[in-house]
Design brief:
single chain, about 180 residues, alpha/beta, Rossmann fold, 9 helices, about 50% helix
């Protein structure tokens, strides 16, 4: 089973994905890899929108290849193609025809995590990824209007939306584990 966790920054994707992979004994994959995220934040600030978009698609491709190399089973993917599209919506609109023609490895279960903007802001601030109130990228990430971009995937048969605003990571993991046991 391939499980993907999607959502805006601060919704709990990484915490839930890591805990879920451990609880289920599944392989954990991330786009981009967690070990590179802080470095990529500084690199992204120096990239054009187009460069950042194609770089993100590259990470999704690598993640897909990794999932396939593990037999395409028992994988939890932290941030996959859908989050990439939301964060690069202007480029997605420009290159939608290319992205739509790519055969993407479809997950068996797509979890869309949601949290209120104030909760996401608190979580992001506690990580220390974004420094200073003037950081444009940080403010944009906290903006809730990007969440509307996920409406395209909410209608998918395999998509479940979970609000993490007032929940613990473990309660979200337990809910998803229950879904995999009782589909």
């Amino acid at each position: 089973m391939i499980i993907c966790l999607e959502g805006l920054s601060g919704t709990g994707k990484t915490s839930v994905a890591k805990g879920l992979s451990s609880a289920l004994g599944y392989r954990y994959l991330s786009t981009p890899p967690v070990s590179l995220r802080k470095k990529l934040i500084s690199i992204d600030q120096n990239l054009t929108s187009e460069e950042a978009f194609w770089s993100s698609l590259l990470w999704c491709s690598i993640c897909t290849c990794n999932a396939i190399s593990f037999g395409g089973s028992k994988v939890v993917i932290d941030r996959y193609i859908y989050s990439t599209m939301v964060y690069h919506k202007k480029m997605y609109e420009k290159y939608k025809y290319i992205v739509d023609s790519i055969d993407v490895l479809e997950p068996d279960l797509l979890i869309l995590l949601h949290a209120d903007a104030s909760v996401r802001e608190r979580r992001i601030d506690s990580r220390g990824d974004y420094i200073g109130e003037g950081n444009i990228r940080r403010k944009r990430i906290i903006a809730s209007e990007d969440e509307n971009m996920f409406s395209d995937i909410e209608g998918k048969n395999n998509c479940v939306k979970i609000d993490t605003s007032s929940r613990t990571v473990n309660s979200v993991i337990d809910e998803i584990v229950h879904m995999t046991v009782n589909p």
